[in-house]
Amino acid sequence: MLITLIIILGLCLGSFATCLTYRSKYHYSLLYPHSFCETCQHNLTWWQLIPVLGYVLQKGHCHFCHQKISPFSTYIESGFGLLLGSICYFLPWELWPNFILTSFWLLCLSLEDWQDTAISLYLLILGAIGPLTLAPLQLSFTQVVLLGVLLWANWTKKLGYGDTFVILVLGITLGDQTLASILFIASLAALIYVKYTKQHALPFVPFLSLGYLLSLPVALNWAKF
Fold first, then answer.
1. What transmembrane ranges does the database entry give (predicted)?
2. Residue 73 CA, distance from chain mean position
């Protein structure tokens, strides 16, 4: 029963993440304008905004103008819902809040970074409050050295300020070993992406998010999450 609720929560958070990043991109507030069809500009009704179900009920086409609706948001909603449900199934329930908040924060940043190769400062800072508040902070000499390396990379434009901040938050809240696993997976995935796309300027936060998710099963201590 609890896992079902977690999946539903994931659907809603996935929907909110796509809404948040879309409105941030076009400099809309969260309250205005009302959600609308991008083709006919007609305001959407409440049932059309239900995660996944709204898309299914409309059969993938706008209820008003009958133009095809992009399934992107539906993919994010369903994927994030299943992701939270499957991982929380194996995760001790007391660790759920931190995992859910961290995953939601990384999802928002990944969507924005992938679409615009840029991250809103307010999303970056406000979203980090949850992980930094709920997780036991772990600061070591290794992380102090890493901080210096990250600041140098940021100064020389090798990394963006968003990438640097995300790495620091993950390192402080997860510890050295988990962070090393995250960075290894993220870097490997990014190198593969560059090799096949020939695109050398790429958003790195989505790869950090991938590293975070894939590092969960191999972490030595679940409590680090």
1. 80-109, 121-153, 165-194, 201-223
2. 13
pLDDT per residue over 84-94, tens digit each? Answer: 999 888 888 88
Query: Minimal CA–CA distance to 13: which of 107, 86, 94, 88?
Result: 107
Tokens 């991008």, located at residue: 38
Give the amino acid at 30.
L
Kindly report, residue by residue over 139-168, the tens digit of the pLDDT: 655 655 666 666 655 555 666 778 888 988
Same domain, 62 and 119: no
Do 99 and 195 fall within a single domain?
yes
* Cβ atoms < 10 Å from Cβ of 208: 26
CA–CA separation, 128 and 161 (whole Å)? 14
Q: Do residues 40 and 146 share a domain?
A: no
Q: How many CB atoms lie within 10 A of CB 79?
A: 14
| 120 and 222 belong to one structural domain | yes
Instruction: Provide the CA 153 distance to its chain's centre, in angstroms.
Output: 23
Domain-terminating residue out of 51, 75, 90: 90
Residues 90-104, mean pLDDT to the nearest whole number? 88
Q: What is the pLDDT of residue 152?
A: 58
Number of domains making up the chain: 2
Q: Which two tokens stand for residue 81?
A: 């819902």
Question: Can you tell me the distance from the alpha carbon of 46 to that of 53, in angstroms, rounded to the nearest whole number?
Answer: 11
